[in-house]
Amino acid sequence: MEHFKTLSAYLKYLELPPPEHPMLSVFAEWGDGFLPCPKESSPPITNDCYSISLKKVVKGEINYGRTKYDFTNGALIFLAPRQVLQWDNSVVFEQKGFSINFHEDFLKGTELAQQIKKYGFFSYSVNEALHLSPKEEQQMETIVASIELEYQNNQDEFSKEIIISQLNTLLKYANRFYERQFLNRKEYSNDLLEQFNRQLSEFFDADEFLNSGIPSIKKVADSLSVSQRYLSDTLKKETGKTATEHLQLYLIDEAKNKLLKPNKTIAEVAYELGFEYPPYFSRLFKKKEGISPTEYREKYKLN
């Protein structure tokens, strides 16, 4: 898999114009022109850059794999360093919006270098992009216009600090708008929780816990066709608990039923639930229930 260590090498591969700054590039077009389009397809690649793009397809469509996504209303897409990128059948004739690409070293020594890692949307899939209202688009465009102006001017000792401050503002607005998107998709959130629990039940009924251990959140997310981070963030916004916490609750609930069967040892219950180490199961159970598995069995054993 090809990896690009510099922004210039990455943009050259994409067949896009070279950057004005060795660690930063800004393409923006929402007037009469159109954004430059990258090469039509690519095998899996990685790079050391962050990307923030607003896509508005005016004519044509964008395909990712065999799936088509609607970008006509404006969708913000976020990519983090070393994420695997691959695309094919990109049929885009005319596209507006903006694309900001910056090397991770551009943030070195700033507060944003740490803060940016806390934004979950850099790990979301393309189909989980942030869809903006016209008013939200306008707010984003205003910020990007300021970034572009600073980028295009003769840069001085203040330029980097100003641009990073504006990037910080852009990401904070994105975070706010994602909160709104989660709230507006409550029905979807509830359905996702039902699907999550149903998938765990299917794994459990098929003895997959016993054969393969506790499924990872990524495995469950993949089976639901969502990204691991989006699954956890969606459940967290709706229920106050992450996907990992819901998985643990499921395991504890199953454990309670098994613990009341006197012919099973604590270790056997742990192994049947996919725990490789029974002591870890006992610690998790006590953390969640306040008592050990043995104490639970004694307290609730059937007469």
Your description of this structure?
- It comes from Croceitalea vernalis.
- Pfam families: HTH_18.
- Keywords: DNA-binding, Transcription, Transcription regulation.
- It is a single chain.
- The protein is of the alpha+beta class.
- Mean pLDDT is 85; it is low at 63-67.
- The chain is built from 12 helices and 9 strands.
Which range does the strand content fall in? 15-25%
User: CATH topology of the largest domain, anyone?
Assistant: Jelly Rolls
Number of distinct beta strands: 9
Shape estimate: elongated
* Radius of gyration over C-alpha positions, nearest whole angstrom: 24 Å
Helix count, DSSP H or I runs of 4 or more residues: 12
InterPro entries: Homeodomain-like_sf, HTH_AraC, Tscrpt_reg_AraC-type_HTH
Protein name: Helix-turn-helix domain-containing protein
Keywords: DNA-binding, Transcription, Transcription regulation
Pfam families: HTH_18
Short synopsis of the structure:
The protein is α+β, with helices and mostly antiparallel strands and 303 residues long.
Topology readout:
Elements: E1 2-4, H1 7-14, E2 24-29, E3 42-47, E4 49-64, E5 67-69, E6 75-79, E7 85-87, E8 91-103, H2 112-115, E9 130-131, H3 134-152, H4 159-184, H5 186-205, H6 208-212, H7 217-223, H8 228-239, H9 243-259, H10 266-272, H11 278-289, H12 293-300
Parallel strand pairs: 1-3
Antiparallel strand pairs: 2-8, 3-7, 4-5, 4-6, 4-8, 6-9
Helix pairs in contact: 3-4, 5-8, 10-11
